[in-house]
Amino acid sequence: VSLPDGVVLASEEHVEFCFLLSVLLDQRWPLVSRFGVLRTPLALAELLQAEVSLAFVVSLEPGVLAGFVGMSAYDPDSGTSYLEAVSWPTAEAEARVSEVIPWLLKTAFSDFGLQRVYLESYVEAPALALRAVPDGWNVDVSIPEYISLPGRSWTLQTLGRGAE
Amino acid sequence: VKAPEWETRRVQLLPIVSSYLPALHEMENGADVLETWRLRGADLTFEQYVQGLWKGVADQRLVIQKSTDQLIGLVQLYNVDLRLGHGWLSVIAHASVRGTPLGFEGAGLFIARAFDLWDLRRLYFAAVGDNAAQYSSVVRQPGCSIYGQLKLRAKVGDELVNVTIGGIDRNPWCERFARRFPLSETPRSFEAEPSKK
């Protein structure tokens, strides 16, 4: 697989950035962050290793990281996996990560051999990956009140798409 | 203070006691469930199986038929998220009771136990392929919903099949449960909530 410019496989050296990102996203979206609670970098690294099958780091420029894209919950039997994308919460970083998402989606089918890719997104706060690739998805599962708090009720959807 | 007995007239929930482990291993590795149950075709030795029994699992109980002392099922609560108030439920029934009311009786009891002991407002479940049909009587109960199907998410044999995702909401289920199950000793939670009787 050839990687686009500014995209590298995530490794141990990116754990600190990922940790900062999780902390920052927790502060912005206390109940929506991928990671749920504040963790130590080591604990976060272990979590990522357990849940994420493949992760790439996206850079704005050398030494300036914009975010991550990757695949999680890979099932080799069915050839399915979940698309993941998260960015530093600035317009510039979001735009940079969004550029990479179509590449990852295409690569997932063509090079990784996936048959179907899923994406989790809240109706009330569409995921970055869905905003980057808004078309071609089917809503497989829709769970109302996935988040339910006084004054806040969010619906989680799992969208799916097959190889094109 | 006496702990509540989690039992009905016909079944009881027991902790994972070692004397039932061989029967449990045999039940979970049966050819009839191996690909659709959580092991998903993994051919584990007995030792490997026992070591992984609590992986990701917050609570689990054996379902024992009281008249025979036979293991007829396993019920599990896993992937608990106390912040969202969610947990996931898995149920396996022995082939001898699968699809029968007895097969689901332990599950109903365990759901009540999960809602009683854990601060959860909803339990989710996933059914692979044709297993979804076994939940047809469950999803007609108050508080139960099917949220959709992950298309082609699992492989059973040579066939790609859908995975059905459903959920059970706490309050309607507990109200229904208190009326339906012939408890020999009512769990404390229901005694403490007279408005739900």
Describe this structure in words.
The complex is a heterodimer of chains A (about 160) and B (about 200). Chain A is α+β, with helices and mostly antiparallel strands and about 160 residues long. Chain A is about 30% helix and about 40% strand. A seven-stranded mixed sheet of chain A has the order 1-2-3-4-5-7-6, sandwiched between helices. Chain A is globular. The mean pLDDT of chain A is about 85. A seven-stranded mixed sheet of chain B has the order 1-2-3-4-5-7-6, sandwiched between helices. In chain B, β3 and β4 form a beta hairpin. The interface between A and B is medium-sized, with 24 and 22 residues.
Describe this protein with a few key phrases.
heterodimer; A: alpha+beta; seven-stranded mixed β-sheet; 4 helices; B: 197 residues; alpha+beta; globular; disordered C terminus
Question: What's this model, at a glance?
Answer:
Chain A has helices at residues 15-28, 41-51, 91-110, 128-132, and strands at residues 7-9, 52-61, 64-75, 80-87, 116-122, 138-149, 152-162. Chain A has 164 residues and is of the alpha+beta class. In chain A, strands 1-2-3-4-5-7-6 form a seven-stranded mixed beta sheet, sandwiched between helices.
